[in-house]
Amino acid sequence: MGSGNSPCASCKLLRRRCAKDCIFAPYFPSDDPQKFAIVHKVFGASNVSKMLQELPIHQRADAVSSLVYEANARVRDPVYGCVGAISYLQNQVSELQMQLAVAQAEILCIQMQHEPSVAAAIPNPQQIMEFQEQNNNNNELTHHHHHHHQYLNFAASSSNVIHDSLSRETLFGHDMVS
Amino acid sequence: MISGRCAACKNQRRKCPSDCIFSPYFPANDPQKFACVHKIYGGSNVGRMLQGVPTYLREQAANALYLEAKWRIDDPVYGCVSIISSFYEQIQNAEIELAKIQTQVAFYKLQIQHVEAEPNLEVLQSQSINMEQFESDNPTITSWFN
């Protein structure tokens, strides 16, 4: 936070006076110069300022966090940035859903082959249907963003390039927007 | 050739040189594309970022920048990060479900082994899994079936 005397990280980098109402000061403390440096590098200080000004104050901290996240992704992967991570995660989801389907089929198989002996332990059809409904609800999350999926087609068609650039990448863990 | 200007140079109201870095990726017939990246990253920034990438990857980079800019315009607070968040959540949920089902499968297989191993009914009865005992020993797994 910018005190009266010490400029925030942004004003230090931009070499200007850090005013009391500096828009950057609450989010770019002077003890973390990298944070602003990377956001400035990808988005530019004036764009960040503009974006923050257009948001109500209580949303600015989250906006800064997500901008920092995106800027970091773009620096780590100058070609695909966050889009690479999204593509990778989408593949992970697909694979997990496939594994789920296989495991479900395996259960059905076992039930059909050994029904008399394991009849006591088989969940009733109601339970199976509830489980499958839960699965479908998980899929709805993708539908909320389905209007984004049309944009991801280009990523799917060049999945080799994405895969190669991602093979060095580690995901950002769960250090998400707070 | 004023009519041959790419979307970037049209937007910036300047001449479009023959080696314009934007023109292969920001054609004049799609002004939206450049308008979006310009709004979020700034025109000169986009040019600089494209220059930092080998030529054969610039189209991918331009498209990725366009996607991210579009998501940021749609959601000015979280941008594409909300998509990443929701994917993490989906993955977490799917992994939990998968673990549940795989445990179920293992449980069934264990039951089958016990049933098939001993055709002698007396031995079978004495060796079969005591469901009550199992349930009290494994309340969590039991709750998945109830």
From TrEMBL, chain B:
<feature type="coiled-coil region">
    <location>
        <begin position="84"/>
        <end position="118"/>
    </location>
</feature>
<comment type="similarity">
    <text>Belongs to the LOB domain-containing protein family.</text>
</comment>
<dbReference type="InterPro" id="IPR004883">
    <property type="entry name" value="LOB"/>
</dbReference>
<keyword id="KW-0175">Coiled coil</keyword>
<protein>
    <recommendedName>
        <fullName>LOB domain-containing protein</fullName>
    </recommendedName>
</protein>
<dbReference type="Pfam" id="PF03195">
    <property type="entry name" value="LOB"/>
</dbReference>
<feature type="domain" description="LOB">
    <location>
        <begin position="4"/>
        <end position="105"/>
    </location>
</feature>
